[in-house]
Every structure is written in structure tokens, then in C-alpha cells.
Amino acid sequence: MRKADLVNTISEKTGVPKVDVLVTLESFFTEIKDTLSSGENVYIRGFGSYIIKKRAKKIGRHIKKNEAIEIPEHYIPSFKPSKVFVEQVKTNVKSLPDDKSSAV
User: Fold this and answer.
1) CA dist 25 → 3, 12, 78 (Å)
2) Cα distance between residue 96 and residue 31, in whole Å
3) pLDDT over 60 (residue 101)
4) What is the rounded CA–CA span in Å between residue 49 and residue 83?
5) Read out DSSP for 58-70?
6) How far is the C-alpha of 26 from the C-alpha of 64, rounded, in Å?
7) How far is CA 70 from CA 5, 53, 73, 89, in A?
8) In terms of DSSP H, where are the helices of the chain?
9) What is the rounded distance in angstroms from the CA atom of residue 51 to the CA atom of residue 43?
10) Residues 56-86: pLDDT tens digits?
11) Residue 100: what pLDDT?
12) Can you tell me the distance from the alpha carbon of 78 to that of 100, in angstroms, rounded to the nearest whole number?
């Protein structure tokens, strides 16, 4: 499902105009990004948590030059689904065809 599909689905189910749904969705995404950028995690009960994970510094390799490079420690955003979310997916999703399971 793409963002446009999500907007259409929400608009159809709620009766809210697509433009309003799109503005709300964009505001939601912006607020999540801004909150994570400021160093705070976002917790949505029954859905999941948008958290910041710290990656330790490590030694990588520049393949073309075959030389070691140091990758500094950095932070990445991550999503951790709630137990309710995980259980719902486990019980409702049937086995996916092989060709679609890798295309995310």
C-alpha cells in the first residue's frame, strides 16, 4: 500500500475529504520526524513505538580502494510494533506468495 492508497482508504472509511486526510497524514509524519530528530521517542499505545537506536562506531571497508574506514557512532530511527499489533498480524496474515514476501 502506498501513501495515496492509504489516503483513499481512510477518506472512504471516514467520509473526510482526501485533502484533509493527506494534510493530517503529512502532519503526523512531520511530527514523528521532528520528535525523533529532537532526541525523543514516540509511543503510540496499541500500535508501536518510534524509537532512536544508537549504532556504535565500527570499522568498515571501502571496497573499490580496499582500505579500512571508520564509521562513527550514529543514531537511526526504528519502529517497534506493540504486542497487540504483532499478534494481530500473526493471526490474520495467511502465508504470502514467495514473490511478494521479499518485495517490501
Assistant:
1) 9, 15, 19
2) 33
3) no
4) 11
5) EEEEETTTTEEEE
6) 40
7) 42, 19, 9, 39
8) 3-14, 18-37, 83-92, 98-101
9) 8
10) 999 999 889 989 999 999 999 999 999 999 9
11) 55
12) 23
Contact 61, 28 (CB under 8 A): no
User: Residue 54 corresponds to which amino acid?
Assistant: K
- In angstroms, the CA 45 to CA 85 distance is 10
Whether the model clears a pTM of 0.85, i.e. scores above it, the answer is: no
In the chain, where the domains are located: 1-38
Half-sphere exposure of 40 (CA within 13 A, CB side): 8
88 CA to centre of own chain: 18
